[in-house]
Write a structure and sequence with these properties.
By secondary structure, the protein is of the alpha+beta class. It has 26 helices and 33 strands. Strands 6-5-9-3-2-12-15-14 form an eight-stranded mixed beta sheet, with no helix packed on it. A five-stranded mixed beta sheet has the order 17-18-19-21-20, with helices on one face. Helix 14 runs antiparallel to helix 15 and helix 23 runs antiparallel to helix 24. It is globular. The two termini are 17 Å apart. The model has no long low-confidence stretch (mean pLDDT 98). The structure holds (3S)-3,7-diaminoheptanoic acid and zinc ion (ZN). This is Aminopeptidase N.
């Protein structure tokens, strides 16, 4: 495919005034009639042709102002429709009819049919698989949609906006008409038809309008949509209270489908969801599932303003809607749950997913300047780093300043297709500030490294911090400018209180935020009576790597005494990481691993501290992961040595004081009816964290088997099964539990996905054979994206030792899978392939095998542009 550049953006020559679509649905021969009214844009070239996008389209008729179009005036190929000799200024009407085959659409882009349900996915460029269209986000129009379908198999006919009416249509068919008064780009179009159950509710908006809420699920699963409905109502309320945003249609619908390439999609008034993010009850869903549902329901709902009312001018601006909307869903979840615990989870995720992306061959700016395949830019950089950039704006401007900027953004750009510059300008104008240096965060890829050293002068009562920033080179960007890095901080004294400097020089410090803006800065704090311990980058105010050699005792001090709970977790993490890195190095060299008393004792003290919330203590107990250690090591990685070292440290902690873990395990069992709230989830998380340590000190599966047998909810059940499978893969107790789990949930696809994931992440050399055997299971279904992700995706992304086997068999297996999946579902294939994004950081034997596997993929015949784009960037 050809490379698209941001710099080449230009407006369309024609303005689309309105769209009327009529669908005659049929599993293999669906007829789509699109009536499009255009006029030439003022000032546009009067001879320019109209060029519409298509993708695998078959056109059966073309009318110009209701009359058959002269063949000499157009060219139609499956990829485009070009029409010439069009009026200079007056409006004209094009009616184009296409025939499409929803059953054969295994890409799950455009209109497809899975499990008897017709459904669409149009973002980013799926609408062009339905009809010829100016399929780009800056073309906004009002849509009317007529749907005609078989009444028995499709009693339900849905599209965006408000329902206009429906009736019988003869021959067992019926029709429904929908009208969406809000101009929208084609990527927000949706159609759903089928036979589904519904859960209904209402929401009264802040101005007193009643909105009908409907969640459609498979018949019989209605009770499992209750939590999603509750989350939706809380989201609607929160967006009114916090962002002043009210819903704007009479109806809001969510449809849950089981075959979906992603999490969910924010189509106007008609969100389509992967059912994994809708369906829950205590028997089938873990606390994590509930938290995900809450976050994704909120995210898609929040898009109604950040994405739909204000959309993106072009796909380079994707973070305008995604980064901002992730920020909004993060804030929502923080308000619904424990803010500090939520932040810890976000930072863990950012570091384990985004930091590696930013450090490898797929690194790109939050706002890229070029792409070959836009589907490959729905990345953790655009989403999660994009959210962090928005968070930094809020940190720099403060709560009120941020709110003023957001209000101006909605006021100025409602109905627009906007850019990042438009967005940033609103914050500048509303606050009278200059954010030009800050804007580098959108344009420079790579995680900044901030190196810090400190000195204390007792005589002068002065404390100095020397800071230096370095932004590593990334593909296409070798030289970087210094950025504006806002670092929240505190100066902790020995008694746990905070020092209040009488003066600060060398940097702009506002409140508790230090603004690092130069390449090198030395900051002096005066009036400090005794040596303070710096708690830096509190709340992870900037998404950077810090190199700050703080003494273990200082980190332990922060971990035990900081007033900021997040900072306590971060200090614990900083305390653990060097020990784990050293352990990995020793294991690699075949030397005995050194453990750390300070680390173990600090961890255990926090775990046992009943004054702290259990969810926080559970997070504290989770040592940095194998991939965290790999990232810290940076290069020449041996995943086996990393695991061996980490296991030794973990065993040391487990055996330090097993009585503490036993007490936590016994004391935090949730009794009575299950509720998915954050507090119950915290108790379960702490109990299950303790169980994982106890399995190590016990050395036998008995306790986990007992926990499995007595679990009365999916969180405890799957946690016990994970401990059994990962710690005692060959024990008869494990085989028995896995079989009991399979038998009990065989007819529940979402739970069987867990059964596959738990087994695909069992560490060690046997993993690949296990995964291959599971692929032969009658429960495996390679046509279902959730199932493929659960088994193949989870193996490649989350089983470092199993996947990165020294003989390269894991990579060869993945290459075969990618080549098999790609012709059917390129997006799924490309996404799973990104699991190899850190291959260059592996030691030589493994990286050679990985390169060969990537080359085998690159040599594949008829690769999709999705996979070839990823594999070529990875090999570059
Ligand atoms: N906007 C969609 C993602 C679409 C992905 C297209 N490949 C879901 C979301 O971010 O809310
Ligand atoms: Zn989104």
């Amino acid at each position: 495919g050809r490379i698209i550049h941001l710099a080449d953006y230009r407006q369309t020559d024609f303005v689309l005034e309105r769209v009327d679509l009529t669908f005659e649905l049929d599993p293999t021969e669906t007829k789509v009639e699109a009536r499009l009214i255009f006029h030439r844009r003022e000032g546009a070239d009067p001879s320019a042709p109209l060029v519409l996008d298509g993708d695998e389209l078959v056109m059966t008729s073309l009318l110009f102002d209701q009359m058959e179009m002269d063949k000499a005036r157009y060219d139609a190929t499956p990829e485009s429709l070009t029409i010439r000799d069009l009026p200079a200024s007056e409006p004209f009407e094009i009616t184009v009819t296409t025939m499409i085959n929803p059953e054969a659409n295994t890409q799950l882009m455009g209109l497809y049919r899975a499990n008897g349900v017709y459904c669409t996915q149009c973002e980013a460029e799926g609408f062009r698989r339905i009809t010829y269209f100016p399929d780009r986000p800056d073309v906004l129009a009002v849509y009317t949609v007529n749907i005609i379908a078989d009444k028995a198999s499709c009693p339900l006919l849905l599209s965006n906006g408000n329902f206009l009416g429906g009736a019988g249509y003869g021959e067992g068919k019926h029709f429904a008409a929908w009208f969406d008064p809000h101009p929208k780009p084609s990527y927000l179009f949706a159609l759903v038809a089928g036979d589904l159950g519904v859960v209904e509710d209402t929401f009264t908006t802040m101005s007193g309008r009643e909105v009908a809420l409907k969640i459609y699920v498979e018949h019989g699963k209605e009770p499992r949509a209750a939590y999603a409905m509750d989350a939706l109502k809380r989201s609607m309320k929160w967006d009114e209270e916090v962002f002043g945003r009210e819903y704007d249609l009479d109806i809001f619908m969510i449809v849950a489908v089981s075959d979906f390439n992603m999490g969910a999609m924010e189509n106007k008034g008609l969100n389509v969801f992967n059912d994994k993010y809708v369906l829950a009850d205590p028997e089938i869903a873990t606390d994590q599932d509930y938290a995900n549902i809450e976050a994704i329901i909120a995210h898609e709902y929040f898009h109604n303003w950040t994405g739909n009312r204000v959309t993106c001018r072009d796909w380079f601006q994707l973070c305008l809607k995604e980064g901002l909307t992730v920020y909004r869903d993060h804030e929502f979840s923080a308000d619904q749950r424990s803010r500090a615990v939520k932040r810890i989870a976000e930072v863990r995720h950012l570091k384990s997913e985004q930091f590696p992306e930013d450090a490898g061959p797929l690194a790109h700016p939050v706002r890229p300047t070029k792409y070959r395949e836009i589907n490959n830019f729905y990345t953790t950089t655009v989403y999660e780093k994009g959210s962090e950039v928005t968070r930094m704006i809020a940190t720099i401007l403060g709560k009120d300043g941020f709110k003023k900027g957001m209000d101006l953004y909605f006021e100025r750009h409602d109905g627009d297709a906007a850019t990042i510059e438009d967005f940033v300008k609103c914050f500048e104008d509303a606050n009278g500030v200059d954010l030009s240096q800050f804007s580098l965060w959108y344009n420079q890829a790579g995680t900044p490294l901030v190196s810090v050293s400190s000195a204390y002068d007792q005589g002068k009562g002065e404390f100095t911090l020397s800071l230096e920033q370095m932004i590593p080179p990334t593909p296409g960007q070798s030289v970087k400018e210094p950025m504006h890095i806002p670092l929240r901080f505190g100066l902790l004294l020995t008694d746990g209180s905070e020092a209040n400097p009488t003066a600060v020089s060398g940097a702009d410090v506002t409140g508790d935020v230090l603004h690092l803006t130069e390449r090198r800065q030395t900051v002096t704090f005066s009036g400090i009576a005794s040596r303070p311990v710096v708690s830096l980058n509190r709340g992870f105010s900037a998404p950077v790597n810090l190199h700050f050699e703080q003494a273990a005792a200082d980190l332990a001090h922060i971990a035990r005494h900081d007033g900021d709970l997040f900072a306590r977790w971060q200090a614990l993490n900083d305390l653990a990481l060097p020990t784990l890195v050293d352990a990995a190095r020793k294991a690699r060299a075949g030397e005995p691993v050194e453990t750390s008393d300070v680390l173990a004792d600090t961890l255990i003290a926090i775990a046992a501290d009943e004054s702290l919330e259990p969810a926080f203590r559970a997070q504290a107990l989770a040592l940095p992961s194998e991939s965290d250690i790999a990232r810290e090591l940076g290069s020449n990685n041996d995943p086996d040595a990393i695991r061996t070292g980490r296991e030794a440290v973990l065993a040391f902690v487990a055996n330090r004081d097993p009585a503490v873990f036993a007490a936590l395990f016994a004391g935090h069992r949730t009794e009575g009816a299950f509720t998915p709230d954050a507090s119950g989830a915290g108790h379960r998380a702490l109990r299950n964290a303790a169980l994982a340590y106890l399995a190590v000190s016990d050395g036998t599966p008995a306790r986990a088997a007992e926990a499995f047998a007595s679990a009365d909810n999916m969180t405890d059940l799957s946690a016990a099964l994970t401990v059994l499978a990962h710690r005692f893969p060959d024990a008869p107790e494990t085989a028995k539990a896995l079989e009991a789990f399979r038998a009990r949930f065989a007819d529940n696809a979402l739970v069987i996905d867990k059964w596959f994931s738990i087994q695909s992440t069992i560490p060690g050399d046997g993993a690949l054979e296990r995964v291959k055997a599971l692929m032969e299971s009658p429960l495996f279904n390679k046509a279902n994206p959730n199932r493929v992700r659960a088994l193949v995706g989870t193996f490649a992304f989350s089983n470092p030792t199993g996947f990165n086997r020294a003989d390269g068999a894991g990579y060869r297996f993945l290459a075969d899978q990618i080549l098999e999946i790609d012709p059917k579902n390129p997006q799924l294939a490309a996404r799973i392939l990104t699991s190899m994004r850190s291959w260059r950081a592996l030691e030589e034997v493994r990286s050679d095998h990985a390169r060969n596997a990537l080359r085998a993929i690159a040599a594949g015949e008829k690769l999709s542009s999705d996979v070839s784009d990823i594999v070529e960037r990875m090999l570059k």
